[in-house]
Amino acid sequence: MAQKTALIVYAHQSPGSFNAAVREVAVQELTAQGYTVTVSDLYAMDFRANATRDDIIGDLKNSELFQYGEETMHAWMEGRLSDDIVAEQRKVEEAELIIFQFPLYWFSVPAVMKGWMDRVLTQGFAFSLEKIYNNGVFKDKKAMLSFTTGATQSMFQPDGINGDINVTLWPLQNGTLHFCGFQVLAPQIFWSPAHSPAAVRAAMLEGWRQRLKGLLAEKPLTFAPCEFFDLSFQGGFQLRPEVREQQQSQPYGLTTGHHLGKPLPPDNQTRAPPTDEATPHSQNHPCV
After folding, report:
1. Domains of the chain (ranges plus CATH)?
2. How far is residue 227's CA from residue 239's CA, in Å, rounded to a whole number?
3. What burial letters (b/e) apply to 37-60, b meaning 16+ CB within 10 Å?
4. What pLDDT digit, counting tens, does each position of 190-231 carry?
5. Res. 280: pLDDT tops 80
6. pLDDT band with cut points at 50, 70 and 90 for residue 1
């Protein structure tokens, strides 16, 4: 039987941080379940965030105009990506579960983790024109965000000062993880641990430990499947007319991003719906 594998992409500067404690709980619990757990500690690795010419070994395809995406795609195809990228891509290939562990910085991931996404998820390796979203390269893998916030949960409500956390998460969960095909598990959000009593922080960690026990059995978040769209330049890659007509009678939009001018479906990016509500699920439909 093949060894179960998990990768934790971790970004925090301090080994004494709450994020470090969360990471350790994940390592312990997944190891206890029989997983081989690999941690990419990006700060400790001094992982380079900026995507540059140094990521390509050898000559460029077009030395007149450097286009990072095109050049790294060719370099991946020809085995000419830099060693640090290749090492991380190998970890991704081996992992059936990837957890991104980080503190929320400016409504997103820290720069070093964004750099990991920019550099490691190269075209060809992580996606292609034919292999995106529910037909993506990593459609058989699961991924999730686990992060801490400085703000309280009430501040990230639809009527809170920071706005709806579902909107905040859409670019990362849909535009990066789901775009590459990952089945995206609901995020694990640790609300304002720095401003919480020790007992509350301990309860947060215990809640995370309990969730990890059944994590791989969870249903992923739902996204609009590719079959809902006209996947042609003539059609503009827009929602098919018959799908739009079907959605007219619905009280909410399809997803946080495909809201169709309607109220956003509640908790679309923070909670997987019950099975009988998961109609626009992305995993079971061919993209092209």
Report:
1. 4-217 (3.40.50.360)
2. 9
3. bbbbbbeeeebbeebeeebbeeee
4. 999 999 999 999 999 999 999 999 999 999 999 999 999 998
5. no
6. low
Q: Which two tokens stand for residue 179?
A: 């775009």
